[in-house]
Write a structure and sequence with these properties.
Blueprint lengths: L2 E5 L2 H10 L1 E2 L6 H5 L6 E10 L2 E14 L5 E2 L9 E7 L5 E2 L24 E4 L1 H10 L7
Parallel strand pairs: 1-3
Antiparallel strand pairs: 1-8, 2-6, 3-4, 4-6, 4-7, 5-6
Protein name: UPF0310 protein JJB09_09395
InterPro entries: EVE_domain (IPR002740), PUA-like_sf (IPR015947), UPF0310 (IPR022996)
Family: Belongs to the UPF0310 family.
Length: 141
């Protein structure tokens, strides 16, 4: 089992949580194919809304990938992103700054935000456990 952090604005993460899915990298399917059923997924949200909004810099979601493969989803406006189904956990949004020195992904990096530039990043088991604990994540309903 692996763990991943995707990057999206908090409003987009909220839509995914509500719909039981995830998308990354502007809907590209390739990055989603690296994620496997049972993997943990988290989202880092640099802002509240895409293209700006209020700076947030927080981990905003935690979940487990369901069985299945990435699939195209027709949004009805000509945009057909790839998605994966996710069982989202009940988890608190947590600011990332207090975690920067504890996370192996960001420890010792002055330009820590650069690790998120590709839209999805694999993280260690240590970082997965740390985030689950910090978010007080637990199985939903």
């Amino acid at each position: 089992m692996s763990a991943w952090i995707g990057v999206a604005s908090a409003d987009h993460v909220g839509r995914g949580r509500q719909g039981g899915f995830m998308q990354v990298c502007h809907g590209k399917g390739g990055p989603l194919s690296r994620i496997k059923p049972g993997d943990h997924v988290f989202y880092y949200s640099p802002s509240t809304t895409m293209g700006g909004g209020v700076a947030l810099q927080a981990i905003t979601a935690a979940g487990r990938v369901r069985d299945g493969v990435p699939y195209p989803f027709d949004m009805g406006d000509g945009f057909v992103p790839y998605r994966r189904d996710v069982d989202w956990l009940d988890a608190k949004t947590v600011p990332i700054r207090p975690l920067l020195d504890a996370l192996e992904l960001t420890r010792g990096r002055a330009a820590w935000g650069a690790v998120f530039r590709f839209g999805i990043v694999k993280i260690s088991e240590h970082d997965c456990k740390l985030l689950l604990h910090a978010m007080q994540a637990r199985q939903g309903r």
